Amino acid sequence: MMFGWNYPPGVTGSEYAIAGPDYEQDYPEPCPVCGEALVQQGYRGEHWVVCISCDYQEDLDFDA
Fold it and tell me: Which end of the chain has fewer CB atoms surrounding its CB within 10 Å, N or C?
């Protein structure tokens, strides 16, 4: 018996909306909006931080 998901055509299951971030770790600085903790996330070479309490999100640029 084979177990798995049946995705629509063009969907692989590795999309961010399905699989989530490639990695996630605590970020050392607090949110500049509400002061709560930030979480650093990454997906396919892109990196950003998100607040665990409010809608704050900021892209990180490691090339600079």
Answer: N
Q: How far apart are CA 33 and CA 11, in angstroms?
A: 36
User: For residue range 12-42, what is the model confidence (pLDDT) as tens digits?
Assistant: 877 877 877 888 999 999 999 999 999 999 9
Token pair, residue 28, equals 């050392």
45 lies in some domain:
yes
CB-based contacts of 36, cutoff 8 Å, min separation 6: 30, 51, 52, 53, 54
Q: Which residues, 6+ apart, have CB-to-CB distance to 9 below 8 Å?
A: none
SS3 state of residue 4: coil
Residue 29 lies in a domain: yes
- Gap between the Cα atoms of 49 and 36, Å rounded: 12
pLDDT given for residue 41 in this prediction: 94
Structurally, the chain folds into a number of domains equal to: 1
